[in-house]
Amino acid sequence: MDLGLRGKRAVVTGGSQGIGRCCALALAREGAQVCIAARTRETLDAVVAEISAAGGEGHAVAVDLTREEYCEVVVNEAVGAFGGVDVLVNNVGAARNADILDLDVAQISEALALKSYSYLRMAQLVIPLMRENGWGRIVNVAGGAGTSPTRGNIPTGAANAVILNMTRALSDAVSGDGILVNAVCPGLTNTPRARSQQKARADREGRDVEAVLKDLGAELPAGRMAEPEEIASVVTFLASEACSYVFGSSIYMDGGGRRGTP
Ligand SMILES: NC(=O)c1ccc[n+]([C@@H]2O[C@H](COP(=O)([O-])OP(=O)(O)OC[C@H]3O[C@@H](n4cnc5c(N)ncnc54)[C@H](OP(=O)(O)O)[C@@H]3O)[C@@H](O)[C@H]2O)c1
Description:
By secondary structure, the protein is α/β, with parallel strands linked by helices. The protein has a single domain, classed as 3-Layer(aba) Sandwich (Rossmann fold), CATH 3.40.50.720. About 50% of the residues lie in helices and about 15% in strands. It is built from 8 helices and 7 strands; from the N terminus they run βαβαβαβαβαβαααβ. It has helices at about 20-30, 40-55, 70-80, 105-135, 155-175, 190-205, 210-220, 230-240, and strands spanning about 10-15, 35-40, 60, 85-90, 135-140, 180-185, 250-255. It has a 7-stranded parallel beta sheet with strand order 3-2-1-4-5-6-7, sandwiched between helices. α4 (about 105-135) links the parallel β4 (about 85-90) and β5. The protein is globular, with a radius of gyration of 18 Å. NADP nicotinamide-adenine-dinucleotide phosphate binds near residues 14, 17, 19, 188 and 192. NADP nicotinamide-adenine-dinucleotide phosphate binds near residues 17 and 65.
């Protein structure tokens, strides 16, 4: 299927590793120019090199997206490099979780600042550019914790709940301009973040982190965790011309593991 992404200009936040990296590579393979943003220059440059090696065009911006002013820097850089923005993949996220009985409210504020506020600000900045062309796609990478909270993941869950809420509201605000806004909700996915999150447990149990992840995956109806490429393939469809009648939706990609009602 031709996704119609050739010549489109995309921005992927948190595009240097994990799900964001796979989204950036998948969009580039479909012929989009891709601007990625994260904090670490080395990993960003490595992804741009991968995009170039595959015959694509990438651009990297090293910024901390907990700071609102850097959202504008990312969009300005993307416009400088490619002349506009047609696709936004809001993906950045890195909450410090703790048990709800020990949680410091600052941990919730930090999670919201990075994941929810940057998603909203990035959308507000690219929407005028998309409106000029009467076409745009915004894909928000939320997460199952937005509707399936546990006592140990309230910061992540709060940020994801805001994103699900905002996805619907943004969709209502801009679908009439040809801009489709949707969310994906990954479950446990094989990324550096998943490994670092399970490291403490692995250490506590004297086990290898890969073994812990494998056991967690085995508890799911799918029998395994997701690979980041699997999440990226759905993000890429939602970012494409081929996606023409999915509005304000949240697609669960959790191997059947959800507890909440989407
Ligand atoms: N993996 C899972 O099991 C899972 C499940 C559900 C939802 N998700 C969601 O999927 C998204 C991607 O997760 P992932 O597992 O791929 O994460 P990851 O492997 O940790 O990658 C996170 C990306 O965000 C960047 N980043 C982190 N903090 C940043 C900051 N303050 N400013 C700018 N960039 C920052 C990281 O690069 P730098 O560190 O260099 O900045 C990296 O590029 C997140 O929103 C996450 O909540 C993941």
